[in-house]
């Protein structure tokens, strides 16, 4: 087992990212020691070695953006000009999210029923927290509810403790 240097969570050998906090488990030779001591808990994967990043299947490269669920190694495609809600489904829920994260332990990780919305339009990927109980973070920094925030390729989104990596296909 490999221990995460950020949260001490144990992962099987060969795992590249911690399923609990999203930190990289395999050191990147292109980073210097000063960067690693900066105190940043959630890395931005935009600057990581291309071999360390998850590689989407070729059939998903036609989508403008993808969300990579860190704990499940699952890709969720985001289509152009559509606004999607992210959340989980529960019994007798009148409104359901467009992207149901229930199968990926969303309840246990603190995802609200209607947690956030995400949209890709005109080359921009935008996320908005919908007043969720456990909040939404981008690269470890909590965002304000109901305020649209731009996402970049390699950003780590946290819905509660649920981690997703943003991949923007160019």
> Helical residue percent?
under 10%
Main sheet strand line-up: 4-3-13-12-9-10
How many helices? The count is 1
Query: Unreliable segments (pLDDT under 50, ≥5 consecutive)?
Result: 27-51
What composes the largest sheet?
A: 6 strands, antiparallel
Sketch the topology as an H/E string, one letter per element: EEHEEEEEEEEEEE
3D architecture notes:
The protein has 170 residues and is an all-beta fold. The chain has a domain at 58-168: Sandwich (Tumour Suppressor Smad4). The chain is 2% helix and 32% strand. It has a 6-stranded antiparallel sheet, with no helix packed on it. Strands 6-5-7-8-11 form a 5-stranded mixed sheet, with no helix packed on it. The chain has a two-stranded antiparallel sheet with strand order 1-2. Strand 7 (114-121) and strand 8 form a beta hairpin. The radius of gyration is 16 Å and the shape is globular. Mean pLDDT is 81; it is low at 27-51.
Topology at a glance:
Layout: E1 2-3, E2 10-11, H1 33-36, E3 65-69, E4 74-78, E5 83-87, E6 99-100, E7 114-121, E8 124-129, E9 136-138, E10 141-142, E11 149-151, E12 156-159, E13 162-168
Quick description:
With 170 residues, this protein is an all-beta fold. It contains 1 helix and 13 strands, in the order E-E-H-E-E-E-E-E-E-E-E-E-E-E. It has a domain at 58-168: Tumour Suppressor Smad4, CATH 2.60.200.20.
